[in-house]
Every structure is written in C-alpha cells, then in structure tokens.
Design goal:
GO molecular function, one term: ATP binding
CATH architecture of the largest domain: 2-Layer Sandwich
Number of strands: 18
Order of helices and strands: HHEHEHEEEEHEEEEEHHHEEEHEEHEEHH
Number of helices: 12
Main location: membrane
Protein name: histidine kinase
Catalytic activity: ATP + protein L-histidine = ADP + protein N-phospho-L-histidine
Shape: flat
Strand content: 15-25%
Keywords: ATP-binding, Kinase, Membrane, Nucleotide-binding, Phosphoprotein, Transferase, Transmembrane, Transmembrane helix
Radius of gyration: 40 Å
Distance between the termini: 40 Å
C-alpha cells in the first residue's frame, strides 16, 4: 500500500508540475499573441490615419497652389477651385477662402460678399458684431467665400477670425511659417457643432512676401482620426492639446467628447501622426484585458490538468498527444510558408526567363526591314514552340521533358517528314526551352518549295549519348536530304544567333552547320550534365514534394 501510495503520489506530483507548466506556457502564448495582434492592428490604424491626414494636407497645398486670382476681393473666389477640391473626394466639412484685408478694403470686401450672393455681407467679428474700419490699425482675416454653400454655411462669410483664439493663432502661424498649419480641435460651423480641426494653407502671390489670404479646410475629428470599429481590438483617443491630461474620444455615433486621461488606466500604446505642421498623439486602449484573459485561460488549463491527473495515465497521453500535434502543425505551417516562398521565387525566376526569351524572339523577328508576313509566321511559330514546351513542362511538374516530345506536330512544322531516332531521354527545363526553339528554327527553314529533284526534303533527327558518367556527352545531328544551299530557305538573323550561339551556350556545348553534296547538316554537342541538369531537377522535386512534419 505504501509503495502504491508513493507511486500514486509521485504521479500526482508529476501531473501537478506538468499542469502548472502547461498553464504557464499557455499564459505566455496567449499574452504574446494578444499583444502581437493588438500591436499589428494599432500599426495598421495609425498608418491609415497618417495616410488620411497626408491626403487632406495635400488637398490644402494643391488648392493653395492652384489659387490664382487678380484680386483677393473678387466674388466667388473658390469657383475656379471647385472641380479641383471636389475631385479629391475628401470628407471636408467646409472649404473656405480667408482674405487678409487692409482697413481700407473692408467696404470693397463687403460689396464682393454681397455680389457673391451671401445673405450677410457686413464685415463683423467672430461674435457677429459689426467692425468699424476706423478702429482698425492693421490687416484682419475675413472669410469671403466657402464651399459647400448651404443654409447653415451661407451666413458665415463676412466674419473676421481675429477675435477667435483658435483660428487666429492658426492663421498667424501659417502666415509666419508660410506653410499649411492645423488648428487645435474646435467646434465647427457653430458653437455646439461637431468637434474638428481646420488646416489653413497660405496663398502667396508671385513676387510677394506676405500671403494675400488662406485656403482653409475643416474636418471632423471623428472621421479623421477617431473612427472606432465595433469589431476592433482597441478604442482610440486623441491627446487634447488644449488641456493637459485631456483626451478626445468618439462614441458609436461619431460624437466627440473630452475626458481626462488621468482618470483611467494608461493607454496600451501610443502613436504619433503628423498633420498641419504639428504632431498629434493617438492613445490606443485595448478593449479586452489581455493579462486577465491569459490568466483565465491558464487557470482553465491548470484545472483541466489537475482533473486529468486524477485519471492517472490519461494525463500523460493527452498532454503528449496534443503537444506533439501542435508542434507538428506549427512545423507544417512553417515548412509550407518556406515552400511557398521558394515556389514563388522559382516561378518568378522561370517566368522572367521565359519573358526574356519571348522578348528576344519578338525583337529579333520583327527587326527593321523584315517582311511582315514572314515575320508574323515565324513569330507565331516561335511563340507556339515556347508555349508547347511550357505545357510539357507543366504536365511533368517541371521535372523535364522527353526529347521525342519536342518533335510533336503541334510543336514544329513538317513533323511528319522528320525521322526521329535516339534514346528517349528527359532533358531539363532550361535545355527543353532551347532545344524546342532550335528544332522549330531548323524545321521552319526546310520548307522552301521542292528540291531540285522534285521532292520535299527528307529530314532525320538523331542523337546519341557516349562516354561514361559523369563525362557522358550528348550528340545531336539534324540532316535534310534532297536540299542544297540554293533551295533551302536562308536562316534568319535570329535563327543564326540561336543555332550558332544561344543554343550551344545554353547547353554548354558547341555547334556547327554545313552543306554536303546532298544535304544540309546541323550538329550539336554538349555535356549530358547540362542537358539533363539533375541539380535543377532535384531543386524542382524538393519544391513540389508534399510538406511533412519533422518527426
């Protein structure tokens, strides 16, 4: 009994230790995965926000660059820019033209606003009190035109921004720095309107040093920076530059409100985005407590481990099986991703090679001064030959092509007149592409009418393999009987390059061509190692082999 109790106690202790270890590992894995997923989601959101801000700042720069007018007091100043600013399709609330007016220009500005059709043309301060030109000693910034024009916005032109602390500070900074500047968060359109930001771009006439005015665009903060998805892993808040420790947050309806960040937990992460010549800090708050979730998962795993430990042997079999399966799945996934990368790299390499060959074919075939009908026939045939060899390679999973398969009627012309002899060896993908073009060139130039004896040329294609491994040599001989230099179609420039240089160099061998008394002969000699290329075949075989877990 004592011995049995000792064994049971030892197994129970071992089970507790293993259960605790499993809980610890699950805790770390869950915590790490949650943090990685949250960090990736935050980076994506911050990148999208930065792209959105850059696009809107670019709109202000483009609008200010396109803004050219003979006078800042001209009615409908934004009329030439309407198609440009709407072409960007950004969600601005109001686009405006704020002119910098001298005291003696207020009367003309009032007339311009009235001529533009706005109901309140009188120049007034931001609280809608009329401005006396005699009380002014320096220029003021007045809104003269805006887009879109609605019942809510038509009453805005004529307002001076000099008494508005947020807008006047923005315009002053834009005037001094001579670049687009963003304002602090501010209610738009009205005092209780949606909270947003305004970006102002100065318009500086040619030869001037001071801006004549500013093109402004206002955007709601909710859609610009604070958009929160219900399915998102986090909520986002904007640090309020107007209040130390304050944050701006948007609810599900897009209504922005202010809260004090010190009242709650710190953000899980912060990101900085640039807009309007200033940095904005976004705080990201995780919607779920990753640590608590990881602890709960670990507790569940430990409880399951303790329960299974009571079943003695079941614990070890269950844990071992699940750990092994998890390990194999991870290894299979890693191996699959590596294999996929290798396949993509190999495919890119082969596609580039094929495209390079096709480019060379087209360039050489359609050279300047060539007969278009003959060139079209040769070009179609050469590309068809390449298509055929690629089809054969695809059928063999790029493991090579039987040499006799390159003499099929669909691959080369006059295949019925060619007597093919030789061992049916499987040549490599690279050699197959070169030989396919080579055979087409030879066959396509053997059909120039009837020979002097009144018969079509009789063609033989023979190859042999001599020597012992690894020094075996491949010999190929093409011979056209009943032909002569006078009756055979002359080889094209592309054909001569292919026969004499490209094909031999691709196979690492040599070639020669000549006429006998009764025939035309082309001979090619190359090492079998290059023709077969076991290195390429092994690499392809490894890529196409199924992914298996490491045991």
């Amino acid at each position: 009994m004592v011995r049995l109790g000792f064994i049971i106690g030892f197994i129970a202790l071992l089970g507790v230790l293993l259960s605790g270890l499993a809980a610890y590992r699950v805790h770390d894995q869950e915590l790490a995965l949650d943090r990685i997923a949250l960090a990736r989601a935050i980076d994506v959101h911050a990148s999208l926000v930065q792209d959105r801000l850059t696009e809107r700042e670019l709109l202000a720069r483009v609008a200010s660059g396109l803004f050219r007018a003979p006078s800042v007091l001209k009615p409908n100043m934004l009329e030439p820019l309407r198609s440009a600013i709407y072409a960007f399709k950004t969600d601005f609330v109001v686009a405006g033209w704020v002119a910098r007016l001298q005291p003696n220009e207020l009367a003309a500005a009032q007339s311009a606003i009235s001529a533009a059709g706005f109901p309140r043309p009188q120049i007034r301060d931001y609280s809608d009190k009329p401005i006396d030109p005699a009380s002014l000693t320096q220029p003021i910034d007045v809104l003269l035109d805006l887009e879109p024009r609605s019942d809510e916005t038509k009453a805005l032109p004529g307002r001076s921004y000099d008494q508005d602390p947020v807008r006047s500070a923005m315009l002053a900074r834009a005037r001094i720095e001579k670049r687009s500047v963003a304002s602090d968060p501010v209610p738009l359109l009205r005092g209780n309107g949606p909270i947003g930001v305004i970006v102002a771009a100065p318009v500086i006439p040619e030869g001037a040093t001071e801006p004549a005015g500013f093109v402004t665009f206002s955007y709601e903060l909710a859609s610009l920076m604070l958009t929160n998805d219900d399915m998102s892993l986090f909520s986002v808040a904007l640090k309020d530059p107007r209040k130390e420790g304050g944050e701006l947050v948007a609810n599900d309806q897009g209504i922005v409100s202010t809260r004090m960040g010190a009242d709650g937990p710190p953000p899980s992460a912060t990101r900085t985005v640039s807009f309007g010549g200033r940095d904005w800090q976004l705080g990201y708050y995780a919607k779920t407590n990753s640590l608590r979730r990881a602890e709960q998962t670990a507790i569940i795993v430990a409880a399951i481990g303790f329960a299974i430990t009571a079943m003695v042997c079941g614990l070890f079999g269950y844990v071992a099986y699940n750990n092994l399966r998890l390990s194999r799945e991870i290894q299979v996934r890693i191996g699959f991703e590596r294999r996929l990368t290798a396949v993509i790299d190999e495919l890119n390499h082969r596609v580039k090679n094929i495209l390079a060959v096709i480019q060379s074919i087209v360039t050489r075939t359609l050279r300047h001064g060539s007969d278009i009908d003959v060139a079209r026939e040769l070009l179609i045939g050469r590309i068809h030959a390449m298509s055929n060899v690629v089809s054969l390679l695809s059928e063999s999973q790029w493991q090579g092509v039987k040499l006799k398969g390159l003499f099929e009627a669909r691959a080369i012309p006059h295949a019925d007149r060619i007597a093919v002899t030789g061992p049916d060896i499987a040549v490599s993908a690279r050699a197959a592409q070169s030989l396919s073009l080579l055979f087409f060139e030879l066959a396509s130039h053997s059909d120039e009418g009837l020979s002097l004896v009144g018969k079509h040329p009789h063609i033989t294609a023979a190859w042999t393999v001599t020597g012992e491994e690894p020094d075996e040599v491949f010999h190929f001989r093409w011979e056209e009987f009943n032909t002569s230099e006078a009756t055979r179609r002359p080889d094209s420039d592309f054909g001569l390059i292919l026969l004499d240089r490209v094909a031999p160099e691709a196979l690492g061998g040599t070639a020669k061509r000549y006429f006998t008394d009764v025939s035309y002969v082309y001979e090619l000699t190359a090492p079998m190692q290059t023709v077969v290329d076991m290195t390429e075949r092994d690499r392809t075989d490894k890529i196409s082999a199924p992914v298996r877990p490491v045991r």
